[in-house]
Design a protein that fits this description.
2 copies of one chain form a homodimer. Chain A contains 10 helices and no strands. Chain A is mainly alpha-helical. Chain A folds into 2 domains: 50 residues, Orthogonal Bundle (Arc Repressor Mutant, subunit A), CATH 1.10.10.60; 152 residues, Orthogonal Bundle (Tetracycline Repressor, domain 2), CATH 1.10.357. In chain A, helix 1 crosses helix 6, helix 4 packs antiparallel against helix 5 and helix 4 crosses helix 6. Chain A binds a DNA duplex through helix 1 and helix 3.
Amino acid sequence: MQTDSPSEETPADRRRLRVRESIISAAERVFAKEGESGLSIRRLADEIDYSPSAIYKYFGSKDELIDELKEAFFERLLAKIDGSSSADRPFLQRAKACVATYVDTAVTRPFHYAAAFSSIKHSLPENGGGPLSWDGFVTTSKGQAFGVLISMVTEGQELDIFDPSLDPVMAAKSLWAGSHGLAQLLIHMPHFHQLVPEQQPMTAKDFIEFHADLQIRGLLKPADGSGNGRLPGQNS
Amino acid sequence: MQTDSPSEETPADRRRLRVRESIISAAERVFAKEGESGLSIRRLADEIDYSPSAIYKYFGSKDELIDELKEAFFERLLAKIDGSSSADRPFLQRAKACVATYVDTAVTRPFHYAAAFSSIKHSLPENGGGPLSWDGFVTTSKGQAFGVLISMVTEGQELDIFDPSLDPVMAAKSLWAGSHGLAQLLIHMPHFHQLVPEQQPMTAKDFIEFHADLQIRGLLKPADGSGNGRLPGQNS
DNA sequence: TTCAGAAAGTGAACACTGTTCACTCTTGTA
DNA sequence: TACAAGAGTGAACAGTGTTCACTTTCTGAA
C-alpha cells in the first residue's frame, strides 16, 4: 500500500484516513451527547453507512476507539490549563484560573471526563495493572496536565507565596484531587452547585471559583512567626 | 399473604425475606470483588440456585438491586464518619479524621463508591433529572454524611479555628469535593499515592492524611484577620 | 492491459447481556 | 378439599461486542 517513498501519501491512504476520521467524528458526536452507553458499534455503523464489522478494520475494539476520544479530550484540556497557567496575570489569579479551567473543561464534556476515570484497576493502558510508573505517566496528556500543576506549585514557592515546606508533587496531587472531585460532583450530581438550604443564586462558575480559592488557600505560606497558620500535626 | 394482624410475620414472609437476603448477600459478594460488570443476573441466579427470572420477583431491575447495595454502603460510610467526627479528641484531629475516614472507607469498597457516582444526569432517584432539592437530599445517607461535614465546619467556626467569613455549606461542599476527588483518584489510578519522580515510600494512608491536612488548612482562620480572598502581604 | 495479491467491506453467527411472559408448581386460607 | 395468590421456571426477545469466512474493490508490477 505504501509507495517506495515512505513520506508520500497515496490516494488509498487518504481514503482510509477519511473513513477513519468519519468514524471518529461520528463517535465523538454520539459520545458527547449520550456517553458510552449510547455509543454502540452497530449504531456507529449505521451513522456512517458501513457494516458493523467494517469498524473493526479501523479499530481493534470499542474500547480502543473510546480511548482515542478520551486522549483527544485530554489534549484539549492540557492546552487549556496550560494557557491559563501561562497567561499574563498575577500569580494567584493564574493559579486559581488553572484549577477553575480544569474543572470547567471537565464539566463541559462530562462524558469524556467521566469515562476517563471510569475503569477500575488499570488507568494506564500501556502499563496495564502494574504499578503506575512516573516516566510512563508524565508522557500522557493526563500526566502533562499534571505537570502544569507541579510547575505552578513550585512557582508559587519561588515567589514566596506558597508554603516552601510542601513537597510540590504531593501538593500538586492534592490540588488535582480537589479539582477532580469538584468536576466529578458537578458532573454526576446536576445542580450540585446550587445545593443549599435557602435558595440563593449560585452558578456553577461561582462555586468553581470559590472552590479554587479554598484549594489555593491551603497552599499559602503560613503567616510568619505565628504558630496559628501551620496546621499542627500531633497536638492542638 | 398478610394475616389479619399486620404486625405478625408469617412463615411465608420469613421465607421470602430469607431468599431476598440471599440474593442481596450473593450480589454483595460478587459486586465487592468484581463490580457492576461482573454482576450479571444469570450469574447471580446460578449462585443462589434459582432461575434468572426468579430474581425479578424480588427486584424490579438490576439497577434497583445495585441501588440497595449502594444505599447500604453509604449507611456504613455515614456511621463511620459520624463516629470520627464525634470521637473524644481535639477538634482539628477530629476534622482531619473525618476527611480521612471518608476517603479510607471509599477506597476500601471501591466498586460501591465508584458505582454511587457513576451515573450521569440523575444522582437522586426520587428526583430523577429535576433540580436537586435540599430537603430531598438531606434525608439520604449521602446527604446525612454531608450534614456531618457541615456541622464540623460550623463547630470549627464557633471554636474560632475556621474562617468565620466562610459559608459553612459551601465550605462543606468544597471539603466534600476534595475528599471525593482523592477517593476517586485512589480508586481509579492504582498506586496514585506513590506516583512520585523519585521512588520514596509513601502509603495511601499517609497521602490521605497529607491531603486531609491541606484541605483543613484552607479553612483555617487567616492569621492577619482579614476575611475571604485575602492576598499575602508579600510581593506577587 | 492483464493479473495476482492485498486491502476494504460484508453478512451471518457466537456468546453474552437485561428483561418479559405464559406457564407450572407450591402454599396458605376459607 | 377447593381455590386463589404467590413463587419459580424455561423459552424467547432485543440488544450488545466481536469474529470469521467470504466477496468485492483497488493497486502495483509484469
